[in-house]
Amino acid sequence: MRFPLVMKFGGAGLADGAAVRRACTLVQEVPGPPPILVVSAHGGVTAELERCAERAVLGEFDLEALRIRHKSLIRELGLEPELLDRLLGELGQVLYAISDRRRIFAEEMDFVLSFGERMSARVVAAALREAGIPATPVDAYDLGLTTDSCHGDARPLPGLEGSLRRSLEEIAGIPVVTGFLAKDGRGNLTTLGRNGSDLTASLVARSVGARRLVFWKPVAGIMDGDPDKVPTARVLTGMSMLEASAMAFHGAGVLHPSTLQPLLDTEVTIEVRDVRSPDAPGTRLDHRESSARPVAVTGIDRLEGLRVRNDGGEAAANLFALLHINHVRPRYLKVAVDAVTLYAPSTPGFQVLRRELSERAESLPQLASVVLIGAAKQGVGLRALEVLGASGVDPVYSQLDADGQCQLFLVEANQQAIAAEALHREWFALESPSSAPG
Question: Which domains does the chain show, CATH number per domain?
Fold first, then answer.
């Protein structure tokens, strides 16, 4: 096996020269065959590219901050000063065209945002070569990563593995692959949504049959609660892929919700490691059996609600088609004879859904979710309701998922932290930090 390991570095892990050198050291220390790297834009660059595009729409052309940022990084690493000149020139041309027109199309925004990852891959590959490690920057779309045409939140098309594997095997040295980027069937550049670089890494790991995928992030690992809401939250040393996937879907921010899906039917093991403390164990995700008891508490701060009139089977079918088309994945869904009630994150797709259903949908008050992950044991839901009630929290809705793995409660936003801390205290506060039972 040429590529048993894929390493993913996020923006914080590549934020400056010291961070890039640290990433190169981690690569140098890999025993055995060299890994594949998947990289995000340098920390803060994607947001700056968005600001550049927004200013261009107002007729303002300003690329100086980005130019200085990358030129300074190149100097700090001792790389060729002209390394990014072609890409910076190309970015300047597209921003100038937008500022002249004072209008930007969705595909142009994806094109503008692509420069972050494209420049990062070239910097990291050059830094590796400077350290004596053969490396080649690779744009993921040149490997055959193809998606639908939903700009800003594109979904990969099935059957990509063969093309990705064959293309990667032809790369000289270590492939340094752009995360986040792809192309649709017509050749237009697309992006996979915020933090979509993690999904790129998963697709690459699946395609090459890697044994391990390591996400290097500025966190100690996956925690059993949100530390901003639960001060006693601790790092889990291990959990099942299914539990981690449910945590991501229901709001835990360490991994992108779609990251784990390509790997659920593989033997790939995932590690979430702290790029600031490379010797710390982090969290290991594997294919163990899920626990028969809760393993974590998570949630989403803001969920938008709709009650859609159900005028018959055709109306319901139309609703579910719109959910699919607009990439809306409800966290709460209840189908009744007269109406469908749903709550979902406030995404651009949800706003499109709201407009398209305006004649037969009623907006509901915003709520927040609190979710017990791994709540399969009989009686957990009833005990959770007792705990919430004793804490003064009265859930607006509650729902057990189809396979009994997650118990969800929708609460008023100002009660979310109270609810999360109460549930965490009930199930985890007296335990020593350990892996989730498997």
Answer: 5-218 (3.40.1160.10), 296-427 (3.30.2130.10)
